[in-house]
Amino acid sequence: MLSGVALAPSLIERDRGLLWHPYAPLDGPAPYAVLGAAGTRLHLQAADGRNFEVVDAMSSWWSAIHGYRHAALDAALQAQAGAFSHVMFGGLTHAPAVELAEMLVEMAPAGVEHVFFADSGSVSVEVALKVAVQYQRAAGHRRRTRFLALAGGYHGDTFAAMSVCDPVDGMHSEFPGLVAPQLFLPRPPRAHLVGGELRSDPLEVAAWVAILEDTVRTHRDELAAVVMEPVLQGAGGMHLYAPECVHAARHVASEYGLLLLLDEIATGFGRTGKLFASEWADVTPDIMCVGKALTGGYLTLAAMLCSRRVAAVITGSPLRALLHGPTFMANPLACAVAVASLKLLRSEPWQGQLATLQTGLTAALAPAAALPQVRDVRVLGGVGVIQLHTPVDVPALTLVALEHGVWARPFRDLVYTMPPYISTAADLATIGSGLCAAVATVHG
């Protein structure tokens, strides 16, 4: 705990009933006030005035991969603010946008060569779905307007993105008539990390692939694209699945003229131990979405990338343009800090950082497997998951974790962590011991 740091409790009181927080009622549990942040640490204060200095096990929802107040990112932001903070992107361009686009194309799977900047991950998915439909119409397939997605998937909360989220947990029923009806495959077979490889039951994979092939064959005249989070379904349950399923989707999409749309918003830029999770399956998508870690957690920015073939078909159509254009598209501040963030990935040994995270989380979370309330413990790259048999008591577990030096934000039956890449062995040990203690205390 910190001492000598005070924040008027009225700040939290002023928040409650005024501000909506994600998936929370206006009169929900009181939030914690942020006093400061640096490196892997958050300085928080509770409504009762208690102060906490904790390791951020969440990277601020998986985005602050370099930690807080990083000198290189701070400098990039300040330098760009000294030149200009924003200009419209219609009819204009600027160096941060061009440099960032060049870097993204260089880093992306070979063949992905064009970039559209969006305000957020959800918006990048909206744009990607538009691109798929525009492509099919331009190619003469005007009936191909639906999407084949995965049970357990999550792609954002805006309407089109929501339509390709899990049909049960994706809030479809709350917006009748507004969420477009899509087709869904079963959740892909579970995978386990064994000797550096993701392995699944071959029979389960074969059965899933058969369903994929039959569904696409039956509905090929109405489908525009197959949509999936490669290898790791994030907010849909932190589900690791067989890379063979992504590979099969690539093959079937190509065979029937569909596009493969991979959502790398959560998995991109190293989080799974590969630069992009598609590398686990050795595939190149037609369309790819990135976000979250793109700016190192500093500003909201995402991007839709597509192949030369997709771009050429749309450019050759009567419309020629991609039909989207946000006011803050390619915001110079966001692009400048994103360039700095990607340069850090290049200059620092991120592969070594992720190997350290995977080793450290595996050891730190292992004791949780012995707890009777724990169903499963799994780790991939910088992702660690403790899955319970029952839903998590979020407020109670959050408080106990704080008392053990960890900021966590569990959901459903999952107590998980995606720490900053700069986390030390001591940080990871603290995360593991804190989460294990919280689970044992609250759900014991």
TrEMBL record:
GO terms for cellular component: cytoplasm. Keywords: Aminotransferase, Biotin biosynthesis, Cytoplasm, Pyridoxal phosphate, S-adenosyl-L-methionine, Transferase. It holds the Pfam family Aminotran_3. InterPro entries: Aminotrans_3 (IPR005814), Aminotrans_3_PPA_site (IPR049704), BioA (IPR005815), PyrdxlP-dep_Trfase (IPR015424), PyrdxlP-dep_Trfase_major (IPR015421), PyrdxlP-dep_Trfase_small (IPR015422). Its EC number is 2.6.1.62. It catalyses: (8S)-8-amino-7-oxononanoate + S-adenosyl-L-methionine = S-adenosyl-4-methylsulfanyl-2-oxobutanoate + (7R,8S)-7,8-diammoniononanoate. The modification N6-(pyridoxal phosphate)lysine is found at K292. Its main location: cytoplasm. The record marks Y23 as: Participates in the substrate recognition with KAPA and in a stacking interaction with the adenine ring of SAM. The keyword Transport does not apply. It is found in: Cytoplasm. Pyridoxal 5'-phosphate binds at G121, S122, D263, P326, T327. Its cofactor is pyridoxal 5'-phosphate. It is an enzyme of class 2 (transferase). Substrate binds at W61, Y154, K292, G325, R409. GO terms for biological process: biotin biosynthetic process. SUPFAM superfamilies: PLP-dependent transferases. Pathway: Cofactor biosynthesis; biotin biosynthesis; 7,8-diaminononanoate from 8-amino-7-oxononanoate (SAM route): step 1/1. Signal peptide: none annotated. One of its GO terms (molecular function) is pyridoxal phosphate binding. Belongs to the class-III pyridoxal-phosphate-dependent aminotransferase family. BioA subfamily. Catalyzes the transfer of the alpha-amino group from S-adenosyl-L-methionine (SAM) to 7-keto-8-aminopelargonic acid (KAPA) to form 7,8-diaminopelargonic acid (DAPA). It is the only aminotransferase known to utilize SAM as an amino donor. Homodimer. This is Adenosylmethionine-8-amino-7-oxononanoate aminotransferase.
